[in-house]
Please model this.
Amino acid sequence: MEIKARTNYPGKVKGTIVLNPFNLHMYSNPVLVVSDFLLDHTIFLGKVKAVLIRRDSILTHAAIITREFRIPSAVGVNYEFKEGEVVEIEFNNDGTTLIRICSDK
Model:
C-alpha cells in the first residue's frame, strides 16, 4: 500500500511507526505520528528518524520544529497507522512524500 503526503523536510527512512512518544525506546528507527506537538514533545525529537504530521499545514508547531531540527517529515498524512508497522518513506524535494507499508516486521 502506498500513501501520499506533502514533504515538510526531505529524506529517506525505513522505520517503525510509533503513535505514543513514550514508546520510542521500544523500537529501532522510530517514525513518530502526531497531529501536532505539545511543547513537551520536543524532548523526544533526538530519538526519532522521521515525523508524520496529520495536520495539513507547514505552519503547525510540529512542522516548524521538525524543519528546524532537520528531521525528515511530512504534513497532511491521512492514514490510521498501527503502532509497530514497518514503513519505507521517501520525503522528496519536489514536495511529495511516498509512504509504503512493508509486510515484514
In short: The beta strands are 2-9, 11-18, 30-34, 50-53, 73-75, 86-91, 96-101. DSSP finds one helix and seven strands in the chain. Helices lie at 61-68. The chain has a mean pLDDT of 92.
